[in-house]
Amino acid sequence: MSSQASFVLDHPEPPRARAGRAANPVAVLAKAALGRLLNRLIRVGSLSVVLPSGEILRAGDADAPDAVRIRIGDYRTMWRLATYPGLALGEAYMDGGVTLERGTLWDLLDLAGRNLSLRPPPRRGRLARLWRRVEQANDRAAARRNVAHHYDLSVDLYRRFLDADMQYSCAYFGRPDMSLDEAQAAKKRHLAAKLLLQPGHSVLDIGCGWGGLGMTLAEDAGARVTGITLSDEQLAVAQSRAKARDLADRVEFRKQDYRDVEGTFDRIVSVGMFEHVGVPNYQAFFDTVARLLKDDGVAVLHAIGQNHVSVSNQPWIGKYIFPGGYTPALSEILPAIERAGLWVTDIEILRLHYAETLRAWRERFLANRAEIAALYDERFCRMWEFYLCLSEVAFRHRGCMVFQIQLSKRVDALPLTRDYIHEAA
Q1: How far apart are CA 114 and CA 206, in angstroms?
Q2: Is 327 helix (H, G, I), strand (E, B) or coil?
Q3: How far apart (Å, rounded) are the C-alpha atoms in residues 25 and 17?
Q4: What phi and psi values does residue 28 have, to the nearest 5 degrees?
């Protein structure tokens, strides 16, 4: 196997033409920097990069088939890719500075992910940890802005790639052959089983989305549900759906920050919202759960995490998709839970379930791409295709997972064994 990048010309110029043309120093530096980056990165598989000059930079296994080839349109893009690839690749794909000549975007990002999985996660210093307190401060105003950035997009966009119930979180594939709709229904049953719901229980759904989980808990378990969100679009859709299903007397959706909720609840559930809390607010979050949960109550947290501490969000995702977001390691969460006086009564790690969920979303998105482009534009479609591919790669190769943490205030609030979860689900 050879990991040495090499330079060739697709259409070599005559020697006289080459000799008469002065070398562009920016191009020379950018080419050298990009070559060094690819030599360090590509160890498995191979990648060809067509430079603005027409030269081809190859990296990876010389004997591997040339399955992925990209073209860089200009030297500025080339330099940014060499110096800040975590942000620049997504931006260049969105803006057309990088185009694919062979293979798909998934092939490119999967190749990068497979190679990055061979490298240990970087360690972050004190300055990075201090910056996190600014980046992830997420006070009430910032939290509303960050939610609006992503979740106040047109519901017609989400309807074109989500399941029928609009579940925008990791599904639960109890069988490999499950459809997306079946797996999302299984996820709701799995959560309900962990909540050990009884008819008449009061439930707080923190980050209720478009209301699907709350309405299911009300209809199937007879619970009385209060769902909160910071998204105007999600709130309007959730309220409309509850009215259409004649659930207004059992389900209430409102726009409210979790820190401002009053009262107590038999059960608390939060799905796909904790990623937006931010490390500086973890203690406030779990203190709030402890304050709102009845003494014999049960809470379940379902959120994206990872198997290492990374301090900050992936830069492109943080800028364009989830500003203020962060996927934590369990080691960053458990101390705050302990200080809040809560029992961790069960932890389940869903490893590849979200990868399969994202694959289904990506396939549906691409199947409806023309309709989505009509809603927004081509640049938006490239941005979201990059987001869905990059997220799937994170779960397949970069240590991301979903954890479900069950919490209680009393040691005897739940059965002695977890058999009840599988019996109910």
Answers
A1: 35
A2: coil
A3: 18
A4: -65, -45
Q: 314, 84 in Cβ contact below 8 A?
A: no
Which structure tokens are listed for 366?
């691409």
Angstrom distance (rounded) from CA 92 to CA 378: 14
Single-letter residue type at 66: D
The span from the CA of 419 to the CA of 379, in Å, is: 49
Pairwise CA distance, residues 259 & 286, whole Å: 10
Give the mean model confidence (pLDDT) for residues 24-32.
85
Using alpha carbons only, give the angle 287, 292, 294 rounded to the nearest 5 degrees: 115
Residues 6 or more apart whose CB falls under 8 angstroms from that of 399 comprise 121, 306, 307, 308
> What is residue 202's three-state secondary structure?
strand
Confidence of residue 132 (pLDDT cuts 50, 70, 90): low
Range 135-139 contact pairs with CB under 8 angstroms and sequence separation of 24 or more? 135/278, 135/312, 135/313, 135/318, 135/324, 136/278, 136/279, 136/280, 136/281, 136/324, 136/325, 136/326, 137/278, 137/280, 137/281, 137/324, 138/276, 138/277, 138/278, 138/280, 138/281, 138/324
The residues, ordered by sequence, that sit 6+ positions from 18 with a Cβ below 8 Å of its Cβ are: none
What number of residues does the chain have? Answer: 425
Q: What is the pLDDT of residues 230-255, one digit of tens each?
A: 999 999 999 999 999 999 899 999 99
Do residues 380 and 93 lie in contact, with contact meaning Cβ atoms separated by under 8 Å? no
% of residues, the chain, pLDDT over 90: 77
Residue 252 tokens, joined: 């209430």
Predicted pLDDT of residue 124: 65
Q: In terms of DSSP H, where are the helices of 170-277?
A: 180-195, 212-221, 232-244
Both structure tokens of 147: 């939610």
Can you give the pLDDT at residue 233? Answer: 96
Q: Predicted confidence band at 12 (pLDDT cuts at 50, 70, 90)?
A: very low
DSSP one-letter string for 41-108: H--SSEEEEE-TTSEEEEEE-TTS----EEEE--HHHHHHHHH-HHHHHHHHHHHTSEEEEES-HHHH
pTM attached to this predicted model = 0.90
Q: Is the dihedral of CA 275, 281, 282, 284 positive or negative?
A: negative
* CB-based contact 376:164 (threshold 8 Å): no
**pLDDT band for position 11 (50/70/90)?**
very low
**Alpha-carbon span 308 to 400, nearest angstrom:** 9
